[in-house]
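Two folds, back to back.
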Amino acid sequence: MKWSLPSLALARPVTTLMAVVSVLALGAIAWTRIDVEFTPAFELPFVRCIIPYPGATPEQVMNEIAIPAEGQFRTISGVQRITSTSDANGCDIRIEFAWGADMSLATAEVRDRMERLKLTLPQDVDRMHLRRFSSESMPILAFVLYRHGDDEEFARLVRRILQPRLMRIEGVANVAILTRPEREVTIEFNQRALRSLGLSIYEVVSSLQAGSLSVAAGELTDGDTKYYVRIMGEYDGLETIRNLVVAPDGVRLRDVADVSFQAREPEYSYTIDDQGGVFLLIMKESSANTVDTCVAVKSEVEAVLADPAFRGTETLIFFDQSDMILSALNSLLQAGRYGGLLAFVVLFLFLRRLRPTLMVAFAIPASLVAALVVMYFSGMTLNIATMVSMIIAVGMLVDNSIVVVENIHRYNQL
C-alpha cells in the first residue's frame, strides 16, 4: 500500500487521535499567548532629522544647516532621495531609502553623520532629533479630555498627574500630549534702548546665561562626614530676571527689555466639535499586546478622573485600535460558526448521514486552531490582515470539505 496521510490515519487511529488532541491543546495555549495587533509589523524606508534653530531666517537656516546636513547624509549608502525644508524654526530633513533596506543599519549611519555634523553647525544648535516611522510609532489609543475653566491650568494638571501614571502602565512606550503651549519666560528687547546704551543682544544674552548657574563645585570633608558643594544661582522669579545687571555701569535687564511670563503664539489649534481640550496619544511597546494595553490605559484614565482634582472632566475616545481588533476577531469567530453551521446543514440534507457531517463541522474550528499554532511559533500576530485571511480560508475550507466528503460518500456507494 502506497504511503499517504489518509492511509497513515486509517492504519494508526490512536496515533492520529493523539496528534489531533496535541495540536488542539497547543492551539488553546497559543490562543491565550499570541500577540494581538491592529496591522502587521512594517517599517517605512525613510527617517526624519529635525534640527531646531529658532530665531534665524529661512535663508540662514538653509545655508548654515540644510546644505551642510545634506552633504553629510548624501554619503550614506542606499539613500535614494533627500528633501529638506528650512523655515524660521529650523530645518526638517527627510532621508528616503530603497524598499527592503535594513532600517536599523540605516538609522545607525544617520546617527553617525549627525555626530559629525555637530562639529560644523552653529553653536546655537544644541539639539537634533531623529525619527523613524513604523507600525509601532502609530498610536493605539487617542482621546481628548476637556472641562470648563482655565485650559492652561487643566493642561498642567494632566501633565503633572495623568501622564506619569499612564507612562507607568506595562506596555505603554510614550504618551504624547497635544494642547496649547505652556507658559514660559519671554524677553522682548527694546532695540532703541540697546543702541542708546551701546549694548548688543549678544552681551545681554551672555549675562543671562551667566546669571543662571547650577553646577557642582567639589566636596568638603569634615572628619567622617563628606559634604558635596554645589553652586546654586538659578532664577527664582520674574523680578530676579528683571533686576539682573547686564552691563558694567549698572544697567538692568528691565531697562532694555520687557520680561513676562506667557505662552507663545500657538502654531496649531487642537479642537474637537469647536471645543478645545487636552489630546492624548498612546504609543505602545513593540512586544506589548494592543488590546491589553488599551484596556489598561482606559481603566487607569477612569481611576484618575475619579480624583477630585479632575471633577467635571469629560472624555471622548476618537481612535481605539482595540475596538477594531476585537471587531475583526468577532467577525472571524462568527465566520467560523456560520461556516460550520451551514456546512453541517448542507451536508446533512444531501448525505443524510451524521458521521461525515460531524467530521466536516469539526474540521473547520480544528483547522483554525491548528493555524494558530503555526502563527504563534512562526512569530506572527493576530491582526487585520491575518484575520481576514483566515475568514477567507474558512470559506474555502467549507467548499473543499463538502466536495471531499461527497466524493468519499459516492465512492463508498460504488
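---
second:
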Amino acid sequence: MGKKARATRKISGMFYLRSMKKFRFPRWCAVGSLALACGGAVDNEDTAASTVLDGDMQFRTAASMSTFCMKYTGVSGDLTLALEDVLDTDALACLESVGGDFLLRGGNVLVDFSLPNLTSVEGVFMVQDAPALRSIELPSLQQLGDRVILTGLPALEDLDLRQVSALPAFHIEAAGEMTDLSLPALEQVEGILAIVGMPKLKAFSAPKLERINGDFDFVLNSAQPPFELGLENLAYVAGDVYMTSNRVLQGVEYENLAFVGENLYIDINDALLSVSMPALVDLGALNLETNDRLERISFPLLETVEISVYSYDNGVMTDWSMPVLKEVGAGFVILRHQALKSLEMPSLETIQGGLEIYENDNVAAMEFDVLERVGGNFFVYSNPRLPQSIVDALLAQLGSEGVGGEVDTTGNAGD
C-alpha cells in the first residue's frame, strides 16, 4: 500500500460527505387516481402482492403512500420521500425493496420513520434535513448496496438497524438527541464509518465489527461522562482512524486492533486518560496531540510505523514507551510535554526521517539503545532536565554516517 509522504490532517470543525451522489428527481405519473412520481410504466391491471413498480417513485402525502401499497411492495428505481404535513410513514409499511436510491429529506413535521418490512436498498440510503424526526426504525433491513447517510437530524433519538451486518459506508452527523448508537449485527464496513457531531452521545457499540476497509472517524462528539465505546472485536482498519475533539471520551481501547493502514489521530480529547492497543502491530502514522489529561499509552506489540510518530502537549503523561517498535518511516517527534520524564524506545533501529525531541520541561532520561540510523535532522534541544551527556552518547552511537541531516543539541541540562 502506497503511503503519503507525510501524515495530513482533516479540516477541523467541519466534515463533508465524501463523493456525494446526485439524486435524480423522477417524472410524474399516475397510480390509481393520485399523481405520483414515476420513471417507468405503471401497469393499471390488477397484480398480485409483492409486485415491484418499474421506475422511480416520489411520495408527498400519506394518501399517496396508501394507494401505492394497494398494489406494490417495491420500486425498481429510486424512491424519494418529500413529505408534507405527514407525521409518520405507517402508510408505507408494505415497502420491501428499493432497486435504486432511497432519499428522505425535508418533512418538517415528520416524527417517526418506520418501514418494518423493508429488507433491501440497492443504492444510497439518505435521510437528510428532517428537523422533527425522532426515530428511524428499519428492523428488517439487511441488504444495502451503497452508502447510508444520516445528516441534519437535530431531534433524532433512536436508530434501529438491528439486522445490518455489512455496510458499504456509514455517515451519521448531527443527530442531536441520540445518546446510544448501536449496530449490533454489523461485521464489516467497505468504506468510511463516520460518527460526527453527536452532542449527547454516551455510547457507541458495534460488538461484532471486525473490519473497516476505509476510514473510521469519531469526531466532535460530546456528552456527560462516562462514555462507552464498544468495538472489542475490531481488528483491521485500512484507512485513517480519527478520534478527535470528543469531550468526554476517557479511554481509547481496541483490544484486537492489529492493523491501521494509514494514520491514527488521537487529538484534543479533553477527558482522555488512556490509549491502549495491545494487539496493534502495523500502523501508518501516529498523531497524539493536546489530550490534556492523558496519563498512559500502551502499544506493546507495535513494530512498524510507516510514516511518522508525532506527540505534542499530552497532559500528565510521565512515561513514553514503545518496547518493540523497530522502524519509523519518516519522523519521530516528541514536543512540549510538561509532565513527561522518560522516553524509552529500546528496540528502535531506524528512523528514516528526523528525530526531534525538544521543549519538554521534565524529560530527564531517554533510551534508544539500538538506534543505528536517523535519515533526517537530529534535533534534541531545549530539554532543561535532560543531561547533555545522554544526548552526546546517542550521537556517538549513531556515528558520523548515522545522521542524514542537521544537528542541534543546545539548551539541554549541562549544556
